[in-house]
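Q: Given only this backbone (237 positions), what sequence would you predict?
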């Protein structure tokens, strides 16, 4: 019975639960417990109330630790310019903008589809020095291995997949499409879906940051995005 009443109380006062989760979020971040930060951030989003900038910054850092740079980019873009003169709030905003600029200068949009008969193994002759970029490449490799397709970002550089060579540039206005293997009738639909003119993954994020969505986010037929776009530039509710 106590659990029922607790659930009812949280439903009637989501702000109190949000504050409790924010304290937990910060505690995990201070301990570098990024998987726990990710879980708590998801719970905060599920409350469906405006969140302060710090929550989104920590959520972005958790995604970056996991190698999911496009997800981090989406979360950073939820942070708006503060309307108050709180130095801590402005510090969070400035840090988020620096991270955004760094991502946009070091990564580029990429859509990859590997046809049957080709090995979906991403190779890079010279791996980047940054551990963050190495983790991002590992993230993409895993999606290619399990799904034969990926739509998101890669660090700027030269890559190859089963003898097919391509370069990634710091371009956030056009998707670079890489289709590996000989065309066939049954694959034409996938090639159309991966057309770089499709803007939805950047302009209308709708799929990620929902329960179970991250596992499906980078399938060749699904454009990655996020669910909750509402952000608050303030330091707290």
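A: Predicted residues:
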């Amino acid at each position: 019975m106590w659990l029922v009443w607790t659930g009812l109380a949280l439903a009637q006062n989501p702000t109190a639960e949000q504050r409790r989760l924010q304290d937990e979020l910060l505690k995990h971040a201070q301990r570098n417990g990024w998987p726990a930060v990710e879980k708590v951030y998801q719970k905060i989003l599920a409350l469906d109330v405006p969140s302060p900038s710090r929550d989104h910054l920590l959520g972005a850092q958790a995604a970056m630790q996991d190698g999911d740079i496009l997800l981090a980019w989406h979360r950073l873009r939820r942070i708006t310019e503060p309307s108050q003169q709180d130095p801590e709030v402005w510090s969070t905003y400035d840090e988020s903008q620096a991270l955004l600029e760094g991502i946009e200068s070091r990564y580029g949009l990429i859509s990859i589809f590997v046809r049957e008969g080709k090995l979906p193994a991403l190779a890079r002759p010279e791996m980047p020095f940054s551990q963050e970029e190495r983790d991002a490449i590992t993230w993409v490799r895993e999606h290619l291995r399990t799904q034969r397709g990926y739509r998101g970002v890669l660090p700027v550089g030269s890559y190859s997949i089963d003898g097919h060579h391509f370069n990634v540039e710091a371009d956030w206005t056009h998707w670079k499409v890489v289709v590996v293997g000989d065309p066939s009738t049954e694959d034409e639909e996938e090639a159309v879906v991966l057309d770089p003119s499709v803007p939805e993954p950047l302009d209308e994020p709708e799929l990620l940051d929902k329960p179970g969505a991250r596992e499906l986010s980078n399938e060749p037929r699904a454009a990655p995005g996020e669910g909750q776009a509402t952000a608050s530039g303030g330091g707290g509710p």
